[in-house]
Design brief:
With 449 residues, this protein is of the alpha+beta class. 46% of the residues lie in helices and 9% in strands. The chain folds into three domains: 16-49, no CATH class; 64-93 and 316-447, Serine Threonine Protein Phosphatase 5, Tetratricopeptide repeat (Alpha Horseshoe); 130-312, Cathepsin B, Chain A.
């Protein structure tokens, strides 16, 4: 009896020890949306060790000449590279004017054709000193669902009430997908509603205020450092819906699908919106090249064009973005996000050599690990300049969480360029399986020899 009395406790202790040993591995294998619902100490137990920033370039060179070009652009020769020994599989690019330059743009289904607003001169009439959009219904996001939730809120302004799960099924068929692009939002609006939508970059506070004052909701993509007790999470990308502004107090009120109107996620203290001062809002907005999506009744497309002005023209928009970004670098050459924007712009302009050097400089200054969750320009620039090892290095860092079809896709292209067809196929198949709507992966698979 004495032996039996000690046997059960011993077995219990052994089971506890075994469970403690296995729990971290089990937690890491679980989809993160389930882990997030567990108590924080248990979440921490299974946390993966991760780098805080993206690694610096394997091969690179100084970007000083890019700064020198800002001072005297006509006097300096263009950068040149020798052609890669192995041709790069050409990434499939998206439609002109979408707010990211990366070739792997996620597509949902074929988008409906809408009459595009035509470019006009930049408006000069005075901007109202304050405005507020009424009728918007605030929604808190489900796990990793700020894009669908924010789009749902914007639609509610027009009395179009869609369930965020329904929107998410279109924008991100896999629940673990961490990113929704502005181009995908435009596709949803044009296919699933009677409204129009327009995605632009190089936005500014003047355009934003004009659109709000005219009654057009605008979704903005920003960087975000979570406040207070949630600062440990680190920098993330986020969508916000500005609902009001006031010039006297220099305040913008936003509907935030995560923090609501408080410092605690999923909590609203009032219905006015979360407050941002103009300068802070603008600085975080610039981390995504001041990207935005405006929604409007289709019959008011020309009114939107009048407000957006010359930025309706893609070439003008990107050239203006280049001038703005160069001016920002002249004022502060230590901002990694500004260098990243410069790389994105050069990608769009087809100057992949300069783009690669700009991305190198951004990485050397320190970019958040999550940067490539949302924007994929470095992959494209490095592929186009034959720097396949850098593509694979960055993709492997991102794929510590295997929830990014773009990382699988670009890694597959890099491996194919290096002649590793077997691994290239495996990665491209992973991209296609994760998001069946991601057409570039299927196209690349069909092109493998």
């Amino acid at each position: 009896m004495t032996k039996r009395r000690w046997l059960l406790p011993l077995i219990a202790v052994l089971l506890i020890l075994l469970g403690a040993a296995l729990l971290p591995s089990l937690l890491r294998a679980m989809p993160s949306r389930y882990v997030a619902r567990l108590p924080e100490p248990i979440q921490a137990w299974g946390a993966r060790p991760q780098v805080a920033e993206l690694p610096t370039a394997v091969v690179g060179r100084s970007a000083d000449y890019l700064l020198a070009e800002i001072e005297s652009p006509a006097e300096l020769p263009r950068a040149t590279y020798s052609a890669p020994a192995t041709p790069t599989p050409r990434p499939t690019t998206g439609a002109p004017g979408t707010p990211t330059a990366a070739g792997a743009r996620k597509t949902a289904t074929a988008t409906a054709t809408l009459p595009s607003p035509t470019p006009t001169a930049t408006p000069t009439e005075p901007i109202p000193t304050s405005a507020r959009l009424g009728r918007i219904v605030h929604q808190f996001q489900d796990w990793n669902n700020c894009g669908p939730a924010t789009l749902t809120m914007a639609l509610s302004y027009f009395q179009v009430f869609h369930n965020q799960s329904q929107v998410a099924d279109f924008l991100k068929p896999n629940e673990e997908d961490r990113n929704v692009t502005p181009a995908e939002m435009v596709a949803y609006v044009t296919e699933k509603t009677d409204l129009g939508a327009l995605a632009r970059v190089n936005g500014n506070l003047d355009t934003l205020r004009r659109l709000l004052a005219a009654g057009f909701p605008v979704i903005v993509e920003i960087g975000n450092d979570p406040p207070g007790d949630y600062a440990w999470m680190g920098w993330i990308g986020h969508y916000l819906l500005p609902v009001a502004y006031d010039d006297d107090s220099r305040t913008i009120w936003v509907y935030d699908s995560w923090f609501g109107t408080s410092e605690v996620p999923q909590t609203n203290e009032h219905d006015r919106g979360r407050e941002w001062d103009y300068d802070t809002f603008d600085s975080y907005w610039r981390q995504f090249n001041s990207s935005y999506v405006v929604l409007y009744p289709r019959e008011e497309a020309e009114k939107v064009a009048e407000i957006v002005g010359s930025q309706m023209d893609d070439d003008t928009m990107w050239q203006d973005a280049l001038q703005r970004t160069q001016a920002e670098l002249k004022a502060d050459s230590e901002n990694a996000f500004t260098w990243f924007n410069l790389g994105t712009i050069y990608n769009t302009l087809g100057d992949y050599h300069r783009a690669a050097d700009a991305f190198d400089e951004a990485r050397s200054l320190g970019l958040p690990r999550r940067m490539l969750y949302y924007q994929f320009g470095p992959y494209e620039a490095y592929l186009e300049t034959g720097r396949y090892e850098d593509v694979i290095l960055l993709a492997d860092v991102v794929l510590d969480y295997p929830y990014f079809e773009e990382a699988f896709y670009y890694k597959g292209l890099a491996l194919a360029a290096l002649g590793d067809v077997r691994e290239a196929r495996r990665n491209l198949e992973s991209a296609a399986a994760f998001n069946p709507n991601f057409a570039p992966a299927q196209a690349a698979l069909e092109g493998l020899q």
